[in-house]
Specification:
The protein is α/β, with parallel strands linked by helices. It folds into two domains: 1-246 and 303-313 and 335-350; 261-302 and 314-333. It contains eight helices and 13 strands. It is globular. The model is unreliable at 196-203 and 216-265 (pLDDT under 50).
Length: 350
């Protein structure tokens, strides 16, 4: 830990984790002093999503936190297209996976695999928070990796899913080694890449002065490049608390002759969730076909799916995975925004 960090640790530092969806902004705040979390609070805003500007109420709230606390770290979960994860970390591996390493920000995890996002996606996120500033941008693959290592590691290929409201990611891990990774949007209105708005990728430059994709989040690794921010003289974060399991639920309802307003709303919600899960199943099935049939992947047989659920998974989807794909399904309910906040704290002060 640097002298600056040692001194700063004695003051109140607030870590602000931000997760945006189409209609909601979820913010988790944790105040840390002398290495201890002394206060935790959250704020949820109902918003009309814009890909260009941050909701004014959210912006004003973040500014008020910056005025109240001397040391503020704002972390954002990147939920847009133009990102992914691959096995390996050299240019050779990126080329093999048809990713131009010259046009992406990438982070190596455990010297085994990499997560990446285009410069355009990073620039979009930074522009979205231009009035308040952004200190950390996290790839969801960083969160998934943290959830994976918080469990008992599997010494066989296992399919992991991280489920959020408007996206989900999947990855095939064997112990800590990633074999395959994919990112999918599940909300049609925002299912686009910000890179589609820019024709010339080469005109985009790497954003400076911001830790991107969890650059401070190389689990189980010390720093291995000079592009880290001055706050990244940090250690490991392999020991975060494990999440709890929960049983799948039966969301079927008996529909009577007359329906109340709440029943109608429940029906609409269940139909929407079922429609979303059909899309998840479609993407999952096509990803498995890619994994098994594309020769660039080590396509060993997968018997188990572990879902880290930060939104909702219907019992119908669980049964479909078990019956049609003939896989065992294990589910853990997780809080994405809370875990992201904890990762940031560990990175800065460990």
């Amino acid at each position: 830990m640097s002298l600056k960090s040692a001194i700063q640790k004695k003051f109140q530092n607030i870590f602000v984790a931000v997760v945006l969806t189409e209609n909601e902004c979820n913010i988790r705040c944790k105040v840390v002093k002398n290495g201890e979390v002394v206060k935790t609070f959250n704020k949820v805003f109902t918003i009309e999503f814009s890909s260009e500007i941050l909701d004014k109420n959210v912006e004003n709230y973040l500014i008020s936190l910056q005025e109240e606390y001397q040391f503020v770290y704002i972390a954002f979960l990147l939920n847009s297209m133009g990102q992914g994860a691959i096995s390996g970390f050299s240019k050779e591996f990126f080329t093999k996976n048809s990713v131009d390493i010259q046009n992406v920000t990438h982070v190596t995890i455990s010297n085994l695999w990499s997560t990446y996002a285009s410069f355009i996606e990073i620039k979009w996120a930074k522009n979205l928070f231009s009035e308040v500033g952004l200190d950390l941008i996290y790839s969801p693959f960083i969160l998934l990796n943290d959830f994976v290592i918080s469990q008992k590691l599997k010494n066989k290929p296992t399919l992991y899913i991280l489920n959020s409201q408007d996206f989900f990611i999947l990855a095939v891990f064997d112990n800590k080694k990633l074999h395959f990774g994919a990112f999918f949007k599940t909300q049609s209105d925002t299912s686009f890449s910000h890179s589609s708005e820019v024709n010339d990728w080469e005109s985009e430059q790497k954003e400076e002065n911001i830790a991107t994709l969890g650059e401070l989040s190389e689990m189980g690794q010390e720093e291995d490049n000079d592009e880290m921010s001055e706050l990244s003289e940090l250690g490991d974060i392999d020991d975060l608390q494990s999440v709890d399991s929960f049983s799948d639920f039966d969301d079927t309802k008996t529909i009577g002759r007359f329906k109340g307003l709440d029943e109608v709303r429940d029906e609409d919600t269940n139909l929407e969730l079922y429609g979303r899960d059909l899309l998840v199943y479609k993407y999952l099935k096509s990803s498995l076909e890619e994994y098994y049939h594309n020769p660039i992947y080590l396509s060993e047989f997968i018997e188990e799916i572990i879902i880290f659920d930060g939104y909702e998974v219907s019992s119908e989807l669980i049964h479909q995975l078990e019956d049609e794909l003939m896989m065992d399904v294990e589910i853990h309910k997780v809080d994405l925004v809370d875990r992201m906040c904890d990762i940031a704290i560990k990175e800065v002060f460990q």
